[in-house]
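Dear Dr. V.,

Thank you for agreeing to look over these. As mentioned in my earlier message, I'm a first-year student in the group and I'm still getting used to reading structure tokens, so any feedback on how I've presented them would be very welcome. I ran two proteins. I've put each sequence directly above its structure. The first is here:
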Amino acid sequence: MWQLLNAAGTVRDIARHTRTYHFAAAPATTFYLRTESATVQIIRWVKPLIEVTTRLNGAFGWRVLAEHDEVGVYVAAKRRAVIGTLSSAIFEVRLPYDAHTILKLEACDLHIANLNGEIQIPANFITPQAPVMLLGAGDDD
């Protein structure tokens, strides 16, 4: 019985994958993220560094590409057609306050921490199936 439980734990651990990418960020750099059916956490900080941590449950169901150049950092994550429906992902992104941020999200949960300023969300941006949650500094949730 214990061998069966240990084997199940090993398979679960193999299916989970965490990776952290680090990129030097020049002033006013651009960060671009494109993903689907994931949780995205944006955290601003004062370091001149962009740090992207990917937590993939069912890593076999995801393809992730991260690149950078002199203009910015680009991360694209796509779920595989059939086996991707069995997987989930969390993207935790830490970036400088002056980084220009572009997010192309489909059916995602978005959390923003350490937020100052104004955010405008177009009326047709939110659908009942895809609500937007914004968390500013000092919020309990």
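The second protein is here, in the same arrangement:
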Amino acid sequence: MLLALQPLKDDLYSAIIAETFRYIASGDLMKMWTANVDAKRRRRRPGQGGGTSAYNVFHTALSKVILKWKDVIAPHHPAIDLSMSVIDINRITTVLWDRVGKCGDLVDLCVRVAKERRSMLAAADELHC
């Protein structure tokens, strides 16, 4: 059964959103993307792939948090298979993104990170032209 199809308790929603905010704010997401772009530069191919919109930033960070928090989520929903597919992650992202819209700080952070990601990808593309 899909995580997004079962209602999570408000406190669990809040905790997942807070951890996603912390993960994005820590800079770990940008470090991961920078490492990916740097590796692709060495192979003479520009780095593409995700993170160019605020929603995609949130989606990527949320998927990392959910994978990390399997042990926290599982007791609330024992019937859920937490080896989720992209479709499952998309569904839970949509549910949580609706709540995030009420949190201006997180939306602003996602927008800022998306702009940084677009700049980084543009710089990588320029090196390969």
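From my reading of the second output: The chain has one domain: 10-127. The two ends are 46 Å apart (CA to CA). Does that match how you would interpret it?

Kind regards,
E.
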